[in-house]
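Annotated sample (chain length 492).
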Amino acid sequence: MERYFDRIKNDHIMMDKWKRVRDIRDLNIDPFGKRYDKVNMIGEILVGTPEEEKIYRTAGRIMSMREQGKAIFFHLEDETGKIQIYIRKDEIGEEVFNLLTMVAVGDIVGIEGKLFLTQKGELTVRGSEFTLLSKNIRPLPEKHHGLTDIEARYRKRYLDLIVNKDVKETFIKRNRILNGVRNFLNERGFMEVETPMMHPVLGGAAAKPFITHHNALDMELYLRIAPELYLKRLIVGGFDKVYEINRSFRNEGISTRHNPEFTMMELYQAYADFNDMMDITEDIISYLAKDVLGTTTIIYNEKELLLEKFKRVHMVDLIKEITGVDFWNVTDFETAKALAKENKVTIAPHMNSVGYVINEFFEQKCEETIVQPTFVYGHPVEISPLAKKNPEDSRFTDRFELFIDAREYANAFTELNDPADQRERLENQVEEAMRGNDEAMAVIDDDFIEALEYGLPPTGGLGIGIDRLVMLLTGANSIRDIIFFPHMKRKD
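Output written by the structure step:
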């Protein structure tokens, strides 16, 4: 205790608050309380009426307070709302009222009483019983200016939630979105599952991993970059429809769109293909927009977006539409490289075929032009090692990505279920890693190939970035605004 007080001895406000704690203890009252039977949420009280003569019992944090003679008014807040409390000395008793004079903004208290309307028409609880539950020691941000420093808000999310009501509402919406995804899929016969977060072999996506070490097994493990290969094993095992809402990890940059730890939803449906996945994706997003916002027409980044009837376009057709370059008849790498140079499209050293050039044209010239929800399909086979080739043109795969306002929201394909083709594709990935692509899968997952040899039915798979979807439906411009505790650089 002495070391604690040595640290704060020059903070006069906190030391004054500790003096109040001692004063309260002198009354034989514990300033840090005990269990309290909170019967009513404040939101429930706010829809009540004085005519009911009902006694409410609630608890929350005091957000404002004023004394008026032998009466005290304060506003009490919990996650569902804020309500005014009125307590008179002659009704509550001198001992409790004396305790109330030692209570301040930030304290957590319990209250019991009936509703009435003040002369100004404000719905108010007339307190007949008062309990101090936890004394606030560190002052809240000043009332009128609040917590406005962005970095401080992210580092001290608990404080951000206390003083910024809209932040709390954002995370309540996030919860509603997650529940909505689950409701949508459960009603359609999908089963929610859990798969490992630590993988012995890296796979399932192209990304840099976080690496850890398991001491007992004396082996390196990777924090998952995607759950895909395990979920497909469950389809092999006989489940027809599975999904997982999971945390995935990618050891890459931090920006307004990226956090190294993020939430995904992946689903797999036997006997389906990527066209079915387009339908499910559109249906999920439209359903969530209606459920959370009551409409499929939203404003995001000052643009009006229609979250239904998504456009569907082949990647090569979109490139031709935006740049005028037609890759349908380009079959040799030298011609593709010349087109890239002519159009100022950068090609990395490990990219050695036409498919890579097509994808770079899309990413560098087309992606930023997409505003309305658009399924871009027909990705080159070189960049889609887990997707089935298109039966009419084997240069491309039955894969799509969903883009809205120049951001990717979903990735899906008809799953590759030919074990020989899959091994060859993964071998190509190993070669690509050796050529310098540090996001390629550098090791072949032999157990996954063996699982395919037992038989994976025709399957459609889909992944949706939950964080970006929450951003879209809450109007957030930064991924940090919709993650409770985003990763930050150390202050030092």
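Annotation: The CA atoms of residues 20 and 102 lie 6 Å apart.
Annotation: The first strand starts at residue 56 and ends at 68.
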